[in-house]
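User: My notes are a mess, but here's the protein and flavin-adenine dinucleotide's SMILES. Can you give me a structure?
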Amino acid sequence: MTSTAVVPDGTVDAAIPLPYLVRHRLRETADTVTLDLVPLGEALPRYRPGQFSMLYAFGIGEIPVSVSAIAPGGDALAHTVRAVGKVSEAICRLRPGEVIGVRGPFGNDWALGIRPLEDDDPVTPLGTAPGEDLVVMAGGLGLSPLRPVVLQALSQPGAYGWLTVLVGARSPQELVHRTDLTQWHALGEAKITVDRAEPGWTGAVGLVTDQLRHAVFRPERTTAFVCGPEPMMRASAEALLLRGVAPGRIRLSLERNMRCATAWCGHCQLGQVLVCRDGPVFTWEQAAGLLAVHEL
Ligand SMILES: Cc1cc2nc3c(=O)[nH]c(=O)nc-3n(C[C@H](O)[C@H](O)[C@H](O)COP(=O)(O)OP(=O)(O)OC[C@H]3O[C@@H](n4cnc5c(N)ncnc54)[C@H](O)[C@@H]3O)c2cc1C
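Assistant: No problem, the inputs look usable. Here's the predicted complex:
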C-alpha cells in the first residue's frame, strides 16, 4: 500500500486506510479474537471510548468494529472481532506480524461529546459530573465497546462514585475479556451471569437485568452505559427506568450495517439519523424511537 491518509495540512483523510501491524492476537472464544494493533507509519488521531474503526482486510473488504482498548498515551488500539461473515472471518484469521488497514476514529463516544467548557469545568472524560455513579450493562460481545469505559473509570476512581459492571453471556464459553472480568470481579465491581451454566460454573445464572435488582447506585446521580443485542438493550433500559434512572441518563451503542462511515452512503440511516455520524452512542430518549425503525 503506497497511499497515505495524512494529507499535507496534517489532517487525516478519513477515506484512506492506514496500515497497522497486528502485534498480538488473543483468542477470546471459539469465534472471537482480540487484535492489538500498532501503526506501521503514521498513527490515526487519538480514539475516545465508544468510537469505532473501519477495519480493512486487504482484498476482501472493510467492516466497522468498536475500539476495545486504547493504550494510555500511545498509538496502540485493540479491537475484538467475532467471525460472522467473509470480512470478519478474514480479520479473525490474521496473525501477529500481518498487516490490516484501519480508518478512524469514527462516531461520537460514550461521553456523547460532553466536554468541559472551561479548564476548571468539572466534567469527567466519560461526560459525567464528578462523583456520579456508573452502571455498565453488557451483553455478549457488547462488553468490547464498554471495556474502555470500565478501564477509564478504574483508572480515575476519585472522579466517579460507585461503579457497577453487569455482564451477561449465553454460556461461560462465550464470555469475552475474561482476564479483565476476573480482576473486576475481584475488585467487587463486576457481576457476571450466564443464560446457561456449564459444569464447573459457580457464578450466577440468569439475565443481566436480574443482576440490576441487587445493584447499589443512586438513580438520580447515575449514568448507565449499555451495549449488547437489541432485545437485551431494551430490557436493560426498561429495568433502569424502573429503578428510577432518567431516559437521558441511559446511553446505548447501536450497531447498523455501514459502508463509508463518513455520512456519505446512507447505509446506516435510521429515520432522521445516520448512525455513523450521529452515533453510535445515543441516549434512551433518542434510541427508544430509533430501535423501532427498520434498517435500509
Ligand atoms: C458501530 C459498529 C461497531 C461494531 N463493533 C463490533 C465489534 O466490536 N466487534 C464485532 O465483532 N463486530 C462489531 N460490529 C459488527 C460488524 O461490523 C459486523 O459483524 C460485520 O460488518 C460483519 O461483516 P462480514 O463481512 O464479516 O459479514 P457479513 O457477511 O456482512 O454478515 C454476516 C452476518 O452479520 C450480520 N451483520 C453484518 N453487519 C452487521 C452489523 N453492523 N450489525 C449486526 N449484524 C450485522 C449480517 O446481516 C449477516 O447476518 C460493529 C458494527 C457497528 C456498526
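The mean pLDDT is 88.
User: Great, I'll file this with my notes.
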